[in-house]
Design brief:
By secondary structure, this protein is of the alpha/beta class. It has 2 domains: about 30-115, 3-Layer(aba) Sandwich (Rossmann fold); about 140-270, NAD(P)-binding Rossmann-like Domain (Rossmann fold, 3-Layer(aba) Sandwich), CATH 3.40.50.720. The chain contains 10 helices and 11 strands. It has helices spanning about 5-25, 45-60, 75-85, 105-110, 125-130, 140-150, 170-180, 200, 255, 270-290; strands at about 1-5, 35-40, 60-70, 90-95, 160-165, 185-190, 205-210, 230, 235-240, 245-250, 265. It has a 6-stranded parallel beta sheet. The chain has a 3-stranded parallel beta sheet with strand order 3-2-4, with helices on both faces. The protein has a two-stranded antiparallel sheet with strand order 9-10.
Length: about 290
């Protein structure tokens, strides 16, 4: 079993991005600027946005974090998004999800200028992805592709099973794995919580991607020997030995599954750092889409 180390891979990619930015600036290109919107003070969202802002500073990108109270109205939030759309200094926009229940996430995502949609959630971004046209890929699936590429894992002709059908991970992941590209050219089955006899499908998987949002949902009997397992899940479970009172686990029962795999991602320090790499790559590409100053 080989661990797919998201920290090590992300460090390598960040070094490549730093060097690419130096070359871009030498050619007269502008420094990429990422604007993030955070509504409320959800601890997990705080951590995610904090890591993104920190990575921007590490790479030499500019970043702006806009914080709003949960009392903000949908109209007000849409107005803030429009301000960023019109701000030529801003290359990429992300709105940290989830949002309060009185705000439509679809309405907010749809309001982002597709040319600044570095999270890759806008319907136009998703449509371009499906059609194989240039655009921004959703950050987590993009990060997973970057990881497969780094480890030179060839999935051509392999059977990939994606467990989870979210618009953020499951659906775009299934598209990207099956596209005529590298990594790609796999045969893909997408499963979900209503799939009958789920185990029958997961046991066929040469590559198993778990993104269903349930702690330790994938267990050892559900995994084929030698499979590549990529765990997208981040779940909190009680742990009295931790100061916080909890610890993070994935959608895969790592302890029972790891010895059966050829490759597996840990949680944390697996897919998470790669998601940020996907976002940063999109942000640099967004800056490059603009004319050189």
């Amino acid at each position: 079993m080989q661990l797919l180390d998201g920290i090590a891979v992300s460090n390598q990619i960040k070094l490549e991005l730093k060097n690419e930015l130096i070359e871009w600036k030498a050619q007269g290109g502008k420094v990429p600027h990422l604007a993030a919107i955070l509504v409320g003070n959800n601890p997990a969202s705080e951590a995610y946005v904090g890591n993104k802002v920190k990575t921007c500073a590490e790479l030499g990108f500019e970043s702006t974090l806009l914080r709003f109270d949960t009392t903000i109205t949908e109209f007000e939030l849409l107005s803030e998004v429009e301000k960023l759309n019109l701000d030529d200094r801003v290359d990429g926009i992300l709105v940290q999800l989830p949002l309060p229940s009185h705000i439509s996430e679809d309405a907010v995502i749809n309001a982002i200028n597709p040319d600044k949609d570095v999270d890759g959630f806008h319907p136009i971004s998703q449509g371009r992805m499906i059609l194989g046209q240039p655009g921004f890929l959703p950050a987590t699936p993009y990060g997973i592709l970057l990881m497969l590429d780094h480890y030179q894992i060839d999935i051509t002709g392999k059977h990939c099973v994606v467990v989870g059908r979210s618009n953020i991970v499951g659906k775009p992941m299934s598209v990207l794995l099956s596209r005529n590209a590298n990594p790609g050219n796999a045969t893909v089955t997408i499963c979900h919580s209503k799939t009958a006899d789920l185990k029958a499908y997961t046991l066929q998987a040469d590559v198993l991607i778990a993104a269903i949002g349930r702690a330790r949902f994938i267990t050892e009997p559900m995994v084929k020997a030698g499979a590549i397992v990529i765990d997208v899940g981040i779940n909190r479970v009680a742990d009295t030995s931790k100061k916080s009172g909890f610890r993070l686990v994935g959608d895969v029962d790592f302890e029972s599954v790891a010895s059966k795999c050829s490759f597996i991602t840990p949680v944390p320090k697996g897919v998470g750092p790669m998601t940020i790499c996907g976002l940063m790559r999109n942000t640099l590409n967004a800056a490059k889409l603009k004319k050189v100053n």
